[in-house]
Design a protein that fits this description.
The structure is a homodimer. Chain A has about 325 residues and is an alpha/beta fold. The first copy, chain A, contains 15 helices and 11 strands. The interface between A and B is large, with 60 and 60 residues.
């Protein structure tokens, strides 16, 4: 994992926020635990570069999760975590694996954190839960999470029903809860990171930018589609039943056409066959698969190593922070 | 217009950006020219407080526009402008009125700026054009506008088709054009303003915050509906034909139901009768009218004088700017 090389690139001082303190990381930069893209290689690379890497268990069977955690343990010098979507019927088993394997950080998403958070806390796990609204942020805070990831509708993949955008969501979540807030959705560079901090966040979670990195496990075709996409090329589809942001392609157009013609819930859900994300992200079928990605893909023009993404991010964040000093107020 | 009182409140030093230089204003804060809400009283109050007030001509007949401009001229000590939606069949007449009445600043929206911008420039008018995408920003820049208002999908009222959010849109527009960019959509306080600057904007345009001000011409019922609305209470309706962001009410629900059942373009456009915005905003029919408003209304809890809104904005912007100094990078 080119540790020495990466360490030598750590030209930036640590940034201390509530988020870095909770998770014991150098920079308040979290790599989202995206299905099919966020394997151990990406998580270890991000953690070794001073961020927090997350293994996305959403696309893994239990034995694969064990394999990925062990690989990350043997390659990461710093803390890493696991993202667990709570709609999984085997949540209990995934959590048990994390505990047995010594994972100390779990991000939960896509479900109610009330059931598992107290158990995780009793076992000394640091937790965060991903929410798309103030109401669900308050519920997560009440469940006892250590931090909240507030994710705007511009984010890739599965998404909230209320379509609240990052710039509207973050300050309202910050005002509503007392735990640190991590901003997600639409953040692709240091300007976006600085904007998140201006809105009151104490960290950022980036999915799309890291899905389009060298260490991402996503198929080359997926990465090329993400790089090629412009600002207008994603859509939130299946808005009424299971909102998911994807690149517009022949698969997506079928869903949109069905929605426009008043198709039933069952019909939409049937079209949204769960194998479609795997087809696009893991296997590279960018015609008939579901290319889950965030709207910020329009800004991303290059596949880079995760460590370089973080260095660029910090450089631009620092540059942006200096702009405020020139604004005499 | 309580000029002395307002001047005494000017506790903040000027903020110098490309936007303040072009328009000759003290603070890079523009009040959107919203139909029915943005009359001369609001525009004069904003301009007297150091921002740029805009009269929204979109809801005015030519003789009403003349009356409003004259009122603003006799009450504003600083520059103010007029917003002209370019889909109006009488654009030429509205522009002629502005020139005859000595208006020096015109913001155009909802149309192609290519036809009128050169004429405006020849007549010494400072111009900006409102766009929802990078592509249209480039067209506006090519048309010769002095500045661009890049407006995210979280904005109230009529909106772009591509649903690009402010945090994604602003940096990409900033990278694509060389004129100063004014961020709009989702900005309701000084944190949002700071976020816009982090993203590279040199000014902000706020509609919703000023529509919910004391000097706004909107009906009291409209203002109360805006104050009462939560983060999840607006929707972008008629997305396929004429996207417009409104508060969900019985009127909106009819449109959403029609869309969900696969209604035709004609049917949707018929339901979106143009008198509906007037009914809600001017006349206060919040049941059957179209309550055009931005998603950030969820954050706004109080009707205040425009001057106080600007002072609060600058105070919070300043406080936010200081946060960056504590982040050692």
């Amino acid at each position: 994992m080119k540790t020495e090389q990466e360490n030598s690139k750590r030209s930036f001082e640590p940034i201390q926020t509530g988020v870095t303190q909770i998770f014991g990381i150098r920079y308040p930069v979290i790599q989202g635990g995206m299905i099919w893209a966020a394997g151990a290689e990406l998580a270890a690379a991000v953690s070794n570069a001073g961020g927090l890497g997350l293994i996305g268990s959403g696309s893994m069977y239990p034995d694969e999760l064990i394999r990925q955690i062990r690989w990350a343990k043997s390659h990461a010098q710093n803390p890493f975590g696991v993202n667990i979507p709570l709609f999984r019927s085997d949540v209990g088993e995934l959590i048990k694996i994390c505990l047995e394997e010594g994972v100390r950080i779990i991000f939960t998403s896509a479900g109610n954190p009330k059931k598992y958070t107290p158990f995780l806390k009793e076992n000394g796990i640091k937790t965060a839960h991903v929410v798309p609204s103030v109401k669900l942020a308050q519920k997560a805070a009440a469940a006892g999470v250590d931090a909240i990831v507030a994710e705007g509708t511009e984010a890739g993949g599965h998404n909230g029903f209320d379509e609240i955008t990052t710039i509207c969501l973050i300050p309202q979540v910050v005002d509503a809860v007392s735990v640190p807030v991590i901003a997600a959705g639409g953040i692709g560079d240091g300007r976006g990171m600085a904007a998140a901090f201006a809105l009151g966040a104490e960290g950022v979670q980036m999915g799309t930018r890291f899905a389009l990195s060298e260490e991402s496990a996503a198929h080359e075709n997926y990465k090329m589609a993400g790089i090629a996409a412009g600002e207008s090329d994603t859509r939130l589809i299946a808005k009424k039943y299971a909102p998911v942001r994807t690149i517009v392609n022949p698969f997506t157009e079928k869903i949109i056409a069905a929605e426009n013609s008043g198709a039933s819930r069952d019909e939409i859900i049937r079209l949204l066959d769960s194998g479609k994300a795997k087809a696009a992200i893991r296997d590279g079928d960018t015609e008939n698969g579901e290319i889950e990605i965030g709207q910020i893909c329009g800004m991303i023009k290059e596949i880079k190593p995760a460590a370089e993404i973080i260095q660029d991010l910090l450089r631009e964040f620092s540059k942006t922070a200096k702009v405020f000093k020139t604004l005499a107020v």
